[in-house]
Amino acid sequence: MKVPGVSESDFLRTYDARAFDRPNFSVDTVVFTVADEQLQVLLVKRDQHPFRGYFSLVGGFVDLEVDQDLQAAALRRLTDKTGVVAPYLEQVQTVGNQQRDPRCWSVTTVYFSLLAKDRVKPVTGTGTSAVEWVNVSEIGSNRSLAFDHGQLVSMAVERLRNKVLYTALPAHLLPEQFSLTQLQRIYELILNRALEAKAFRRRILSAEILVECGSKQQARGRPTQMYRLADPRYTYVFSRPLDL
Amino acid sequence: MKVPGVSESDFLRTYDARAFDRPNFSVDTVVFTVADEQLQVLLVKRDQHPFRGYFSLVGGFVDLEVDQDLQAAALRRLTDKTGVVAPYLEQVQTVGNQQRDPRCWSVTTVYFSLLAKDRVKPVTGTGTSAVEWVNVSEIGSNRSLAFDHGQLVSMAVERLRNKVLYTALPAHLLPEQFSLTQLQRIYELILNRALEAKAFRRRILSAEILVECGSKQQARGRPTQMYRLADPRYTYVFSRPLDL
DNA sequence: GCAATAGTGTCTGTGAGACACTATTTG
DNA sequence: CAAATAGTGTCTCACAGACACTATTGC
Lengths: 244, 244
Known about the structure:
The structure is a homodimer. The first copy, chain A, is of the alpha+beta class. Chain A has five helices and ten strands, in the order αββββαβββαβααββ. In chain A, strands 1, 2, 3, 4, 5, 6 and 7 form a seven-stranded mixed sheet that branches. Chain A has a three-stranded antiparallel sheet with strand order 8-10-9. In chain A, a hairpin with a 2-residue loop joins β1 (24-35) and β2. The relative contact order of chain A is 0.15. The interface between A and B is large, with 44 and 43 residues. The structure holds a DNA duplex.
């Protein structure tokens, strides 16, 4: 393995990136939304082996010509399937081992994204394959996913549940304008437990990350103050997490 | 791109994992320790192009025959260089883009590890290349590292700084037996600010993650109560983070 | 005694949780 | 008026920070 007097330029000219066995590498994104009082993820039906006919996460291999970096690769797949540029995309974890893909040693970097359902164009994916929102609660019981994607979803859900304890991330799951009650419902959905309204409002409002934008008449009852995120790109971190 | 009536077994038999251009993939670990009142990382001198003669993180490509999964790959490299099985290893982030390696589009998954310096055997690495502890504070100024490893170190330091606010991770940087004062000094080193002794002791002791193990005479002054981690594999999470 | 280090008593402040209460709408 | 939904007043509690204090050693 000695490289005696070779210059760096000579070395690079003669280097063959395909000379060594390398793992397969892909990028997958768990896209969350909320609808029908359910946390849902976007899945795509595979039309090729392996796992033909199974649903899988939105993702695929990196295109070395097109993708500038990992996040861009994830974003490209996501935009292909949803028609929108995801407003929130965060890397979760990278999983790689011999067993997860029957073809070979394979690695995937998992992202998660938050999307308001009303922002997604009627799911006119580019491919022929079906794209579908699936309730998180059904995955693993009614449905098993391709590869280890069921586990990847669990990891992303765990991360989301954890982040919700000290950030206002769930705002990205709502339409641009929303009420504090709506936001609280999303928190409750994700955490699967009730929160105290007073404490919730105090917490969110004192963070000063929302701006008021008019009030809206409800079907019945007192009208609601509506808000939107002051800066959607900014992730506020609360000084104390919610109690577990 | 249609695969008409091919069976899954036929498909797998004829699948060539090397048929598509894929990014290079490697695993790198930022190994932290503390010595001379400094946070240090373990670096290896490269004896091959590219970046021959520069220092880089402990890492390398996955061995598809030997490594069961990503963490095992990281651990193997680490054990090669330190002679110990790292007691704490955590995935930080995965970075991939066109620019970071002059050879090709390349991806690395970065881990960080915490090691008490006295546990590392006198750094008899298997390779011929030099292995060295370097102060984190010197990286980027006095020393620039191979590839983007300087940035990778920064990411790991940021993660460590953040985790220290709500865990007792720094205990892994100390010998098996340590005093609360020693532990506090490590926290202060990482956070780069003084902590209140009373609050610190109350916090750590009330977590009940330490067990007393005798007292030790100091050079001068009152003898110290020594402790060790009750369960080194368990990471306690404090209900509130330290103030920023 | 003094210097040096370990360790405590106790007050303050902040922000989460609890829960009874008020406010504003429709019918 | 009642029902429904939005929003508040205010108490308690846990725990981090501040800081003056005590404890135990060597010299």
